[in-house]
Amino acid sequence: MAVREVLPEEYDELDQKLEKELPLSICGLVHFRLMRRKHLLTEKMVLVDSWPDFSVLVIVDRQRREIFPIAVCFCRGPDFVSTLDTMLHSAWGELSSPMFAVGSSCDVNDALVNQYKSETSCPFRQNHDKAVVYTLPADSSVPIPMPDGFRETELSERHLDVLCKTWPYSKSNEFSSTERWLKYHICNFPTVCIETDDGCPVAWELQQEYGSVGMLHVEPEYRRKKLGSIVSRTLANKLNKGGHLVLALVTENNDPSVKFHEKNGYVRLPFKISFLGCFFETKQ
Question: Where are the beta strands (DSSP E) in 136-211?
């Protein structure tokens, strides 16, 4: 099987083809549009198994970066996992480092792992917390008035210290600097922050590199003031005004987060995804 890179002059056609594959292609489409809008596709390889008709898409870093590489995938179904496997290996050949893969449905990732005879021979490690996939229609994001004493801003480098301290996965981020990872996101992608009038950040959310909104946080003493909903809807409105789909990936056993997103107008899509760690060095 040949792995083909999509050329810049083919991006419009790729966008249209991914849109026709919705909802299953939503991660690949949102990520592709985000990278294109931010002029970051020059740093990516946009790989397909064939062109113009393809069954597997992998968008991955062109070379190693100082943050953990992300591979965003689209795969039509379990029948194409050997192709997805080949393409992830091909991407790893350029990076020679672990990757974090997101976007494939759970049945695809299960089949991808199960094609290996044993856990020791399998380079993939699944996060068994499956994620529910949500999107937010543009007409469902109704703004909520800001309470007195607060103001809307954006995240910046001056917020890095508090972001690192409050993000629950900071200590487990063993492959890259959490501060460097967060700085990359707040410098490149849409964010919303709510501050008190004296400049203290109390609530925030950002769009992550793979397209999903996330890292929603409200300081404990400021909860129950609808600040989480204000942040979430404000960020969604930013994305909608730019003509982009709003994507949220929510761990299915996180009942408070599931209820929060549904209360705020998010619509659940008919499949789940799981996250893959790709550690191809284990096969050497």
Answer: 150-153, 191-196, 201-207
Q: What pLDDT is stored for residue 283 in this prediction?
A: 39
pLDDT tens-place string over residues 129-158: 899 999 999 888 788 899 999 999 999 999
25 near 48, Cβ under 8 Å? Answer: no
Q: What is the DSSP string of 128-143?
A: EEEEEEEE--GGG---
Task: Give counts: helices (H), strands (E), the chain.
Answer: 8, 12
**pLDDT category, 120, cuts 50, 70, 90?**
confident
Residues 6+ apart with CB under 8 A from 264: 136, 141, 229, 232, 233
Radius of gyration of the chain (CA): 19
ω into 52 cis (within 30 of 0)? yes
Output the pLDDT for position 167: 86
In one-letter notation, the amino acid at residue 152 is E
For residues 40 and 170, give the distance between their C-alpha atoms in angstroms, rounded to a whole number: 25
Give whole-number Cα distances, 251 to 166, 239, 255, in Å: 19, 22, 8
**In the sheet that 4-5 helps form, which strands lie side by side, from edge to edge?**
4-5, 44-48, 56-61, 70-75, 99-102, 267-278, 124-135, 247-251, 212-218, 201-207, 191-196, 150-153
- Report the distance separating Cα 210 and Cα 236, nearest Å: 15
The reported pTM is 0.92
Contacts of residue 205, defined as CB under 8 A and 6 or more positions apart, other chains included, come to: 191, 192, 213, 214, 215, 216, 217, 231, 232, 235
99-102 and 70-75: which strand pairing? Answer: parallel
Contacts for 16 with CB less than 8 Å, ≥ 6 apart: none
